[in-house]
Design a protein that fits this description.
114 residues, mainly alpha, two-stranded antiparallel sheet, 36% helix
Amino acid sequence: MSHKMATLCPDASLEMLRPLCYCGTHCLQGDRWVVKNYRPVSLTSVACKQMEHVIAGYIQQGWEDRDWLYEGQHGFRLGYSCESQIITVCQDISDFLDEATKLDAITTNFFESF
């Protein structure tokens, strides 16, 4: 694999996918024979995964340096966890209630999306 020449070894370009059962090793929560209980998992090489991590970090650092990300974006940024997002939203709701200000909120459920 060469990052300077942007090439992969022939084996690395043939990504392998294997099914992985959602319900754990013993399938206690679901039936092992139901297709819906499985999801595809990529078995790419460690080198490809490391390169992906380096590139993603480089891109994210560029976004942070240029201030392209909204300060309310939490979950994948350093210092902006999902927990800090929940605390921020709860504090905002509390402030609106204290001020007796009208508040509109929209909630979404992405459970079935993944």
